[in-house]
Amino acid sequence: MIDALESARTPLLLAALVASGLQAGTYYTWASGVMPGLADTDDATFVSAMQHVNVAIVNPVFLASFLGAPVLAAAGVVAAGGPARPWVVAGLVLALATVAVTAAGSIPLNDALAAVDPRSDGSTLAAARETFEGPWARWNVVRTLTSTGALACLGWAISR
Fold this sequence. Notes:
Organism: Nocardioides plantarum
Order of helices and strands: HHHHH
Keywords: Membrane, Transmembrane, Transmembrane helix
Number of domains: 1
Pfam families: Anthrone_oxy
Transmembrane segments: 55-80, 87-109
Protein name: DUF1772 domain-containing protein
Radius of gyration: 18 Å
């Protein structure tokens, strides 16, 4: 049993590292390019674009990395020992924090925005955007930091 765990250690940690990297890259892209690009659009375009993206992102490819990062990190905790284990645990905690921030911060904002008719009058769209854009961008920065932290911890664990 111990030999099986030892032989699974590196592949599990590499898989967790890749999944965390995909998550970090996703949130970084939103923070550094997508949201700044959408900031220059009118309210109707912003609301419609975010509604479409929030539907499209719930797909098997995204969910594999979103859920895979913490699951693989948890498996890595079981397989890792010695000086690597604390780093894998830290990576797991940060991967779980990314999921928690998404569930508690981003998804409720996405759901509220989904309820807005993108053909509403200008004041309704402006109010919806005002309620959504700043908080969502801040939560996304938190996700960027937690997922990047998970990536760094798992990368360090592999070198231990």
